[in-house]
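Hi R.,

Here are the chain sequences for the assembly we discussed:
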Amino acid sequence: MAIYPLKETRTPPKSQTKAIAWLKDNLFSSISNAALTFVALYVIYLLLPPILNWTIFDANFDLTADNQSCGREGACWSFINANLKMFIYGFYPEEELWRVNTMFGLIAVLVIFGSLIKKSQYRAHYIIGSFLIYPVVAFVLLYGGLGLEIVETDKWGGLTLTVVVAAIGIIASFPLGILFALGRQSEMRVVKFISVIYIEFVRGVPLITILFMASVVLPLFFSAGMDFDKLLRALIGITLFQTAYIAEVIRGGLQAIPKGQYEAADAAGLSFMQKTILIILPQALKISIPNIVGSFIALFKDTTLLLIIGLFDMLAIVGAASSNSSWLGRETEGYVFVAMVIWVILYLMSRYSKRLEVRFSTEHR
Amino acid sequence: MSELINKEIGEKDCCNIIEIKGLNKWYGDFHALKNIDLNVKEGEIIVICGPSGSGKSTLIRCVNFLEKFQEGSITVDGTELTDDVKKIRQIRSEVSMVFQHFNLFPHLSIINNLTLAPIWVHNETRQEAREKALKLLDRVGIKDQAEKYPNQLSGGQQQRVAIARALCTSPKIMLFDEPTSALDPEMISEVLDVMIELAKEGITMVCVTHEMGFAKKVADRVIFMDVGQVIEQNTPDKFFDNPESERLQTFLDQILTQ
Ligand SMILES: Nc1ncnc2c1ncn2[C@@H]1O[C@H](COP(=O)(O)OP(=O)(O)OP(=O)(O)O)[C@@H](O)[C@H]1O
Ligand SMILES: [Mg+2]
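And here is the predicted structure of the full complex:
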């Protein structure tokens, strides 16, 4: 028999600098990979210069320039500046814009205030409270009432409309989606049947169709005299649509919960409601966060379809602004700008969801 | 046969806390429990053992209605189990269960795992429940982990938490389904020690386990099941030293030579 002495620990041998190692691992790890890298580089070489020229080098950054003095070889960014109000507020009356600003400002205040609350128990109350009260306040601010002048929904537009529609779609479809997800898992045949039919029907139909149905078919059910708000119709359509997707996402989360969790909750004597709310849903929602956010992001993008039924979301504003005789032919600037705004918002959303995921994974699982 | 043994070891009807009569259970066409008759007296410690698939889990899971059964009756503390949701909850509030895989709630801290049922099922105040929970955690030796989450504990610690959670509602009956068989060997004794302490305090316990040392030390009765039936039951001494049925002899030989 032998006895072996303990060995010293050493640092790994240095073979390559970090940058070269990275290149090798990520861009040239195989012949086909290297070929792809070169193809990609070539495409970038072809595309990048004209894009940069148009957006930056040949562009006119003079924000007071008009359509003529701007020139045609590059972007004319004063178009955005001149129409910025329309991009953000649509056709909302000038003297009432403070109401929209207050509405957005309140969100910031709520978020900042919420992040100051440390105790998780109070935070839950705070969040639930905000979700119940804020929509009412926001509605009064935006629409009017309680002494504020009424601003009809056909004046709403631009980023405001996009955000409002997306937010309402998200907030309304979330609880409904939970109900349908639970319904689909239910042991009650009728409930299950209705949920399955609803989810599968809606998922089989494109949003456009649902929006058309909501704007054309829904009014048929109401008497002719009743004017049924167009935006409200769109909101109903979007919520119905989003509900089905959220339901499926949450069902995925529900299926990932081990049987033992149901059994432990049952064995403890919890009622069905208690079991669902205290044990099953919190875990299922946590698992589903990435997919829920993914589906919200998809919804946010889909709000651009609103222009098809005649609502002026940000994308439709581009058309409206560039058909104005003093800004003819500046659609491209508008679309690029809208794309960037939407991209920034979506990017922030997905970053936030990443952060949520990380937080939950370190806290619990 | 089983009636005979019941009489032999002096079982009376008067103080049975669990009465199982003519219990039959099928999974589809598979006859999982065949005509089980079993009475458990208040304060009795029962150990159930038997080969895998013999229906041990199924049997004790019928007692708190985690499994439905098709024939026979189960009466727990004077309440007969039926489909009535109220009665089922009533019985579940008196019967606690400890699972093989702990089944702690991973999204709740240890202390919240313990206080959940007291608060929501037994309508205790948060304060009361918390105090009692801390005492129980102290008793199972993990008071300092109260604010942690289940996945931050070792298997043995998790199972002790699960036992504390089961005790938190002051149950009359504790059901254990192989509480140590998912544990690494070095953690088994820390859980068994807690169970032995518990057994000495006079709570009624029905344990499915293959820990024969535990059975010898604290069981009042050991029950051997095979193919969905109770094959033999006896006091631990006789059970281990003079097994009557051949099946039990082979079973004991197998697990003792392991
Ligand atoms: N949900 C189910 N569906 C169908 N058959 C089942 C189900 N649960 C258990 N069984 C069957 O019933 C029989 C008894 O199962 P049970 O889990 O009670 O055995 P056990 O004695 O606890 O075994 P083990 O020691 O492996 O836990 C087994 O043959 C098993 O295959
Ligand atoms: Mg079992």
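The CA atoms of residues 111 and 215 of chain B lie 31 Å apart. Confidence is low (pLDDT under 50) at residues 1-12 of chain B.

Let me know if anything looks off.

Best,
T.
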